[in-house]
Amino acid sequence: MILETSHKNKDISLLINDVVGRPFSFIKTIKMKGSISKRMIIEDSSPNLKAYLNRAFDPTLANIELRPLGILIRIIKGLSNFTWVIPYYQLDIYKSNSNHIYSQGRFIRFRLDKNFKENKHFFDKLFILKEKYKAKYGFLKFK
User: Fold this and answer.
1) CA distance 51 to 104
2) Pairing of strands 99-103, 92-95
3) Which helix (H) or strand (E) holds 142?
4) Which residue, among 56, 69, 80, 86, has the nearest Cα to 24 in the 3D structure?
5) Distance from C-alpha of 116 to C-alpha of 98, rounded to nearest angstrom
6) Residue 61: strand pairing partners
7) pLDDT value of residue 85
8) Long-range CB contacts for residues 30-35, cutoff 8 Å, separation at least 24
9) Which own/partner pairs from 49-55 qualify as long-range (CB within 8 Å, at least 24 positions apart)?
10) What is the C-alpha R_g of the chain?
11) Fewer C-beta neighbours within 10 Å, C or N terminus of the chain?
12) What is the pLDDT averaged over residues 17-40?
């Protein structure tokens, strides 16, 4: 689910909180050493995500926010912001020359550059949270 989040909207915030949980508390965020990645450049995406990316030569930036039940990928397109809400049970991450995030029939590939390498610790946290979720709710089969 991709939502337009340029302006604060209470209904959208409630919907996001229902799907992926409320943001981590301040204390939990400090213990985790952060719950939001640094900005990364989107190198490629699936055709059904092209509408949310910059069309010119300007790179489209995105960052990832961890939540208890999923992640939020915040895409910055000019003056507009879009949020891709992904619960952990729909999330697939493939690591090759760069990281690919797949979910809901869409994918994003991030450029392998200095910013991406700085987020290595963040992706390690993401893998750990996904595995904890799988261990806790793995008996449930979602289709």
Assistant:
1) 16
2) antiparallel
3) none
4) 69
5) 9
6) 41, 76
7) 94
8) 32/66, 32/125, 33/121, 33/125, 34/122, 35/65, 35/66, 35/67
9) 49/2, 49/84, 49/106, 49/107, 49/108, 52/2, 52/77, 52/82, 53/77, 54/78
10) 15
11) C
12) 91
Pairing of strands 106-110, 2-4: unpaired
- If one counts every other C-beta atom within 10 angstroms of the C-beta of residue 95, the result is 9
Query: 38 is written with which tokens?
Result: 């640094």
User: 56 is written with which tokens?
Assistant: 């010119």
Tokens matching residue 125? 């946290």
Q: Give me the phi and psi of 24, to 5 degrees please.
A: -65, 150
Q: What's the one-letter identity of residue 45?
A: S
pTM: 0.87
Distance CA 91, CA 11 (A): 24
pLDDT on residue 82: 92
pLDDT at 35 > cutoff 70:
yes
DSSP string, 38-81: PPEEEEEE-GGGGGGS--SSSPEEEEEEEETTEEEEEEEETTEE
Residue 84 one-letter amino acid: W
